[in-house]
Hints:
Layout: E1 13-17, E2 34-37, E3 40-44, E4 49-55, E5 61-68, E6 70-72, E7 78-80, E8 94-97, E9 100-103, E10 108-115, E11 128-141, E12 147-160, E13 168-178, E14 181-190, E15 196-198, E16 203-209, E17 212-218, E18 222-224, E19 229-236, E20 243-250, E21 267-274
Parallel strand pairs: 3-12
Antiparallel strand pairs: 1-12, 2-4, 4-10, 5-9, 5-11, 6-7, 8-10, 11-12, 13-14, 14-19, 15-18, 16-17, 16-20, 20-21
Amino acid sequence: MIPSLLPRAAAAALLAAVAAPAAASESGRPVVSLSATPAHLTLFGRAPQTLVVHNDGAARVQVVASAASFSFDVYGNAAIAPSADPPRSARKWLVVRPRRLVLAPGSAGKLRIVARPPRRAGAGAGAGDHHALVLLSALAPGQAHVSVRTRLGVLVLVRVPGRIVRRVTLGRVSVSRVRRRRFVVVSVLNRGNVAERLLPGQLTVSLRRAGRLVGLARSLPRDLLPGTHGLIVAPLSGTLRGPVVAVVRLAAPPEGPRRLLPPLPAARRTLRLRL
């Protein structure tokens, strides 16, 4: 059984944790509220980038920045700061300066983010994307010795020069039911060495009976780190029942800003499925 058939796309920013409820001020604004731009960072080698941290809350806050590891489970849920760094973690490579910011309500501050991968990091299987978080922890002192805390994690990919490989393969296909809704669930494996963002509808499942199209399911978005597998979920509408032939297609995405990478090959699989 899938615990939450709505996997979180790691996409841009990861909400790492909330250590206390978001209390509201008299004006109705949250006491502590952080945001960061850009929403995610890709660092090329040792070239630095700037992260702008915004205090959107009503209180003056102290922000502590640190590097952390993370991983995704098969459903796309993030595990922040696991006990052991996962494969291809870039946590130890990240340098964040300054480590602390004090921000008044409505103000912003800048952090300089740089990666320092080993000189021979691109040798062997080390080329491509390595991942980490810049973890932002905010504290706003409150009355009666009660403080409000919140944390925000910003995804960082460190791209190490070398041979880039992009390949996503299709695995097991099944049907899952949650309450009265049905979902086609497709297991996929990122066999490449760069992180892949699968867009909404990039994976489709065409359902055919006697050669005629009788249903179509389109996937929810999903991010896959290099060398990891996960489940892609496609909601299935209608009341179709019984055996069908399912044609699963993973389309090559429009490259856009990823034009400097080799294209992601399309994939297809045909199988019998019972609804």
